[in-house]
């Protein structure tokens, strides 16, 4: 396998209305999916959820999400306030179940991530408030990063889907120490496929850049990646030790993580690389990067369902 199998630069993985469209067939795995939909002002898009559950997450702009059973039954409509950009604030979101018919419409236009996972249970469509998103500061020193746990395993109910956002200040490393989740070891490690979708903050007119490393763990496909990543790039991680994710000085890094796997329990259990796990022991002696948090979740928000 080569980097090209796992690193999909911006503009190389689109399909139809989607600027990015990665699903189980394309990734050659069983569960995880990610689409990025760009809508012009007044634009709308409909899709069938099929055998997957989905979360509609605004990356920029707001939208209306309508989910129905496609057979003349009831519909749920959610007004998503969204945000200016992934570097500006936490967003609200909408969960839509498998077998639904979904419509996304945006008066002002915007960009919307559709995080998905093949699943078995059909859960109710629901609104996720930005004010309920737990913002976590993880690591210290130059390993400091911010995690927006909007659909973490213990934060929001889903059948298979796990999704979080990570913001890494310029010059810092995240996804560190390198870790993996490619074996089912009860109570110790989950088997999860993972997608990293990147956006890198520019500095003036200079485009941002970052780096992503993945090394073989001895399981699966022997994933081995050293990728220079820019806004809109994606890295697929079916297996392997992943990390660090490196933000170039002067350019904050954002990535959206989408995970799912075959386990009966929906949980995120990781194993640190034995050569680098010691770094966690140094964090207690260092302060958190004072640039963090880049922002907090709002304290209150209007009702998004109608």
Automatic annotation (TrEMBL):
Q: Which gene encodes it?
A: iolB
Q: Which GO terms describe its molecular function?
A: 5-deoxy-D-glucuronate isomerase activity; glucuronate isomerase activity
EC code(s) of this entry: 5.3.1.30
Q: Give the organism the record lists.
A: Streptomyces armeniacus
What general EC class does the enzyme of this chain belong to?
isomerase
| Keyword DNA damage among record annotations | no
Question: What are its GO biological-process terms?
Answer: inositol catabolic process
Superkingdom per UniProt: Bacteria
The record's annotation in InterPro entries points to: Deoxy-glucuronate_isom_IolB, KduI/IolB_isomerase, RmlC-like_jellyroll, RmlC_Cupin_sf
Tell me the classification of the organism that encodes this protein.
Answer: Bacteria, Bacillati, Actinomycetota, Actinomycetes, Kitasatosporales
UniProt keyword annotations, A-Z: Isomerase
Among SUPFAM superfamilies, the record links this protein to: RmlC-like cupins
Keyword set includes Isomerase: yes
Q: Gene3D superfamilies, from UniProt?
A: Jelly Rolls (2.60.120.10)
Output this protein's name. Answer: 5-deoxy-glucuronate isomerase
